[in-house]
Amino acid sequence: MVSSVPKPDMIVFDVDGVLVDASRSYPEVVSRALLWGWTRVLGCIPDSEGFSSRHFSVTKTHPAFNDDYDIAWAALNCAASRGTSSLAAALPSPEEWGALLRGFTGTDVLSWVRSAFGERVLRDPLRQACEEMYFGGDEYEAMGETLLYTTRRAGLWERETPLASFFWRDLPLPAGIYTGRPLKELRLALKLLNWEDFPPDLIVTPETGMIKPSPDGLALLCEKTSASSPLFLGDAESDRQTSRSFGRGFFAPIGNFLPDLKGYENPALALKDYGLL
User: Fold this and answer.
1) What is the DSSP letter of 91?
2) Residue 65, burial from CB neighbour count under 10 angstroms (0-12, 13-18, 19+)
3) pTM of the prediction?
4) pLDDT, tens digit, for every residue of 108-162?
5) Which helix (H) or strand (E) holds 20?
6) Taking a C-beta distance cutoff of 8 angstroms, is the pair 130, 29 a contact?
7) Which end of the chain is more exposed for a tag (fewer CB within 10 A), N or C?
8) What's the rounded Cα separation, in Å, for the pair 153 and 17?
9) Whole-angstrom Cα distance, residue 22 to residue 11?
10) Mind listing the pLDDT tens digit for each residue in 83-100?
């Protein structure tokens, strides 16, 4: 008898926390960028560790924060709005930060930050500082870019390690990538995975104008592969909301950012559970 239970007909991967362990790169970028903005831009006192891993985890439960660099920008402007030069006094605790985020019901981070806190630190310079910290001086300049805000040092991307123990060509279904990483940062992840030959037309990055939690990236990937029921592997609330908004297919949580779901330790375990490895 043929089973009537629907099955995935495509696999779509997020990158950070799914294909690559970025727990020692992007959270550190956010923390360093906040301290950089607090001291170098605002001229204030860095009497706190800054944005902690607990702050980061709380933020990833909000669907609007798919872009980690905007986490640094939002938290820095929140602290800057408090009217004190002490970061320890200005930066909300993780619990207070979580309460602020719960009051933000939309997905437009730029509008929320500017209306809730004002833009005391401009977004574009802070984002470039984040990029410089992520890539490091040599890698950044090798791309033809110029260091403007940070000193030459090793890039934090070098702390990343693979989470995927398989090769994309060995999967039994078409595979796609829907990520918040810009393409130049994604290339480093693909190099780490030895997935440099991944089909570029099956990759959706912010350069396409499709940004999670929009389901448009899933729709595009399904259209290109004639799929209708994708299995989306993600680690954050923006990924879950993307899958929900698409309205078809399956969502497999990886890691522990979603406290109400038991996440798989790595993507191979999720794929094995669906009979795909």
Assistant:
1) S
2) buried
3) 0.92
4) 999 999 999 999 999 999 999 999 999 999 899 999 998 888 877 899 999 999 9
5) strand 20-21
6) yes
7) N
8) 24
9) 21
10) 999 999 999 999 999 999
